User: Which sequence fits this backbone?
């Protein structure tokens, strides 16, 4: 059954999100959701999930089951194991518990209550059959194997996993859910290349409807057959056939035609205004001109009512990342470090790295091999079991964390970037370069979208004017335009960068010179092939036989 939005209206106070917005999506469509920040993309998902009511209008999905992958993976039960988290992708345990309760109630129920319980029992049994109640665990194990989840992880608490591992588990749980409609909000954030490839192929061949909010254009283009634009200027929803590039061309043409029409309307309005003004100034005895003036005034009023609204051009992020002093020739040395988490294998033994001044150093490896952990060791957040991490006295460090842990969610944007080296006026000026204006700076960070949080974190890092930047997935949550802007700025940065990133375009843009391949600890000269196919390199030839 198609998904239909009819006469959708929604506003938050004076901020209009949708105004008589409508759309139709077929049941097998793969759709990319696009629009500027604040247009209402994630809000559309909330409406579909029943978490946000429309002021008026409706969205109809029939009886279809929705599976949802949020942008931020929240683990509510810290003791929940990976296995329990994955298994509950299908609500089999919940349905079985409800069925058992019905059996108990049926022992004493009579009349209408008995009929109601029997009817509900039938629906539950049909649902359990649809969810392959007897084969579901085998299906889940097959999926775990296909996605490449290490069986040793299944008994570990979800809260102990890395950001990439959590994303991988959340996606696996979603794929296991057997939903007719999948809603994906920035699904490739934190995913390594092999998992991303599997997910891409899975979604391309998925037999249901898929709606994807993503800033990863390459990922979108391999899956989608349509683009859904949430237009922040008109508050409408428009559907475009084809991939992202086709949408961009069609939208650019529409924008050009709209601007031409607006120019024509403005010209007609100006001509009418001039005529009406002349008629008003004419002699009272010139009845013909007065009548024509009245007629033109009515036409003018109608023209003004029909006047198209000009499409806004939204501001872009601006950055200034000059270090406050020149760095050392060897800003950082890592000498024979060894580290492991309790009850887990060693992540690295006797790992050594010597960073060169002004170089760009990339850390790659599959999810869970210790990329983010290495950066936390460098920052002193974790301590190695043995070995040394030494900074040169001239080294100033700034750190961007993958899960944005450096932000205090209870504090405002302004409080998060507060720095004794800047006045409040200077802080506000800098924040405006990251698209936070006026009262925006007093918002608590906890209420911001992931993209907005990422901009606050970037702002905080760059304000430190460090000559060594330690960046863990800095392009996650950012739109393609902002990714290019920060990539261009990092390319011109006069200090040293060590980065974890799965974004080849960003990596090449900043000019990586060397890369560390984990878990084997090999350091190689950079090549794009190495970044994309390093999984094959993770196992040396002598270990394959």
Assistant:
């Amino acid at each position: 059954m198609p998904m239909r939005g009819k006469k959708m209206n929604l506003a938050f106070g004076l901020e209009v999100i949708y105004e008589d917005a409508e759309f139709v999506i077929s049941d097998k469509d793969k759709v990319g959701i696009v629009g500027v920040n604040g247009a209402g993309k994630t809000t559309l998902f909330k409406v579909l999930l029943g978490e946000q009511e429309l002021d008026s209008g409706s969205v109809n999905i029939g009886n279809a089951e929705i599976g949802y992958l949020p942008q931020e993976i929240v683990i509510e039960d810290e003791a929940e194991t990976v296995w329990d988290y994955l298994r509950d992708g299908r609500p089999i345990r919940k349905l079985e518990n409800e069925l058992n309760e019905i059996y108990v109630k049926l022992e004493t129920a009579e009349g209408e209550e008995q009929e109601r319980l029997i009817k509900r029992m039938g629906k539950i049994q049909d649902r359990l059959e649809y969810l392959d109640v007897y084969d579901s665990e085998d299906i889940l194990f097959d999926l775990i194997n296909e996605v490449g989840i290490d069986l040793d992880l299944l008994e570990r608490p979800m809260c102990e996993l890395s950001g990439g591992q959590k994303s991988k588990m959340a996606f696996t749980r979603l794929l296991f859910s057997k939903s007719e409609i999948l809603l994906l909000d920035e699904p490739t954030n934190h995913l390594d290349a092999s998992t991303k490839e599997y997910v891409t192929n899975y979604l391309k061949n998925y037999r249901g409807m898929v709606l994807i909010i993503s800033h990863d254009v390459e990922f979108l283009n391999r899956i989608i057959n349509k683009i859904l634009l949430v237009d922040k200027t008109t508050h409408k929803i428009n559907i475009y056939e084809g991939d992202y590039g086709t949408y961009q061309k069609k939208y650019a043409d529409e924008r050009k035609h709209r601007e031409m029409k607006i120019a024509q309307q403005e010209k007609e309005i100006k001509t009418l205004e001039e005529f009406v003004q002349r008629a008003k100034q004419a002699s009272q005895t010139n009845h013909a001109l007065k009548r024509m003036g009245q007629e033109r005034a009515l036409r003018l009023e109608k023209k003004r009512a029909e006047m198209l609204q000009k499409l806004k051009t939204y501001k872009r992020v601006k950055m200034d990342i000059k270090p406050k002093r020149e760095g050392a020739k060897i800003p950082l040395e890592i000498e024979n470090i060894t580290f492991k988490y309790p009850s887990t294998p060693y992540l690295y033994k006797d790992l050594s790295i010597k960073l060169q001044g002004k170089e760009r150093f990339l850390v790659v490896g599959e999810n869970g091999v210790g990329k983010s952990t290495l950066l936390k060791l460098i920052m002193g957040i974790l301590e190695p079991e043995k070995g040394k991490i030494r900074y040169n006295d001239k080294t100033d460090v700034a750190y961007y964390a993958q899960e944005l842990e450096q932000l205090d969610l209870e504090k405002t944007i302004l409080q998060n970037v507060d720095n004794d080296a800047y006045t409040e006026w200077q802080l506000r000026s800098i924040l405006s370069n990251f698209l936070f204006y006026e009262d925006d700076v007093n918002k608590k960070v906890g209420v911001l979208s992931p993209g907005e949080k990422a901009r606050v974190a970037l702002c905080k890092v760059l304000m430190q004017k460090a000559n060594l930047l330690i960046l863990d997935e800095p392009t996650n949550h950012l739109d393609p335009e902002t990714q290019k802007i920060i990539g261009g700025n990092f390319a011109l940065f006069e200090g040293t960068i060590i980065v974890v990133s799965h974004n080849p375009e960003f990596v090449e843009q900043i000019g990586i010179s060397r890369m560390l391949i984990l878990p084997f600890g090999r350091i190689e000269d950079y090549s794009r092939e190495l970044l994309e196919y390093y999984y094959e390199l993770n196992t040396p030839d002598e270990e394959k036989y």
